[in-house]
Write a structure and sequence with these properties.
By secondary structure, this protein is mainly β. The protein has one domain: SOR catalytic domain (Immunoglobulin-like, Sandwich). 12% of the residues lie in helices and 57% in strands. It has 1 helix and 9 strands. The chain has a 5-stranded mixed β-sheet. Strands 1-2-4-7 form a 4-stranded antiparallel β-sheet. A hairpin with a 4-residue loop joins strand 5 and strand 6. It is elongated and about 50 Å long. The two termini are 23 Å apart.
C-alpha cells in the first residue's frame, strides 16, 4: 500500500508544476525509475525580456545535483530540457527556479522516485 501511495504521489506531482503567475512549469520523466536513473526535466518558461537563467536542483536525502542554464530573455526557446544521468535511489524533489534581473521570478517543483536495483544503491 505504501508503494502505491508513493507511486501515485510521484505521478501526480511530476506531471506539471505551475506557479501562480504561470511564468514557469516543470515536467519530470520518468516519474519512477530504477537506479542508476536517467532523469529528464522539461522546463517551460513564459518568454519575458527580464528572464536571465534557470536553476535546476535535484535533491534527495543522500544526493544533490544542480545546474544553471542561461536564458536569452524573450528571444530564447520557451522549452528547456535538462538531463541528469546516474541518479542513485531516493525520493527526489526537483526544483526549478527562474531568475531575472530582479532576482527570483518563479519556482516550480516536481518529484521523482528512484528505486534500488540489484547492484546499485
Amino acid at each position: 500500500m505504501r508503494y502505491r501511495v508513493a507511486l501515485l504521489l510521484s505521478i501526480a506531482t511530476s506531471a506539471v508544476g505551475l506557479n501562480a503567475t504561470n511564468r514557469l512549469s516543470v515536467k519530470v520523466s520518468p516519474a519512477q525509475a530504477l537506479a542508476p536513473a536517467f532523469m529528464r526535466v522539461q522546463a517551460t518558461v513564459q518568454p519575458d525580456a527580464g528572464n536571465r537563467s534557470l536553476q535546476v536542483i535535484a535533491q534527495s536525502d543522500d544526493f544533490y545535483r544542480s545546474t544553471e542554464v542561461e536564458i536569452e530573455g524573450d528571444r530564447g526557446p520557451s522549452v528547456r530540457i535538462i538531463e541528469f544521468p546516474g541518479l542513485p535511489s531516493g525520493f527526489y524533489h526537483v526544483d526549478v527556479v527562474l531568475m531575472g534581473n530582479d532576482g527570483q521570478r518563479a519556482t516550480a517543483t516536481a518529484m521523482l522516485r528512484v528505486m534500488p536495483s540489484p547492484g546499485h544503491r
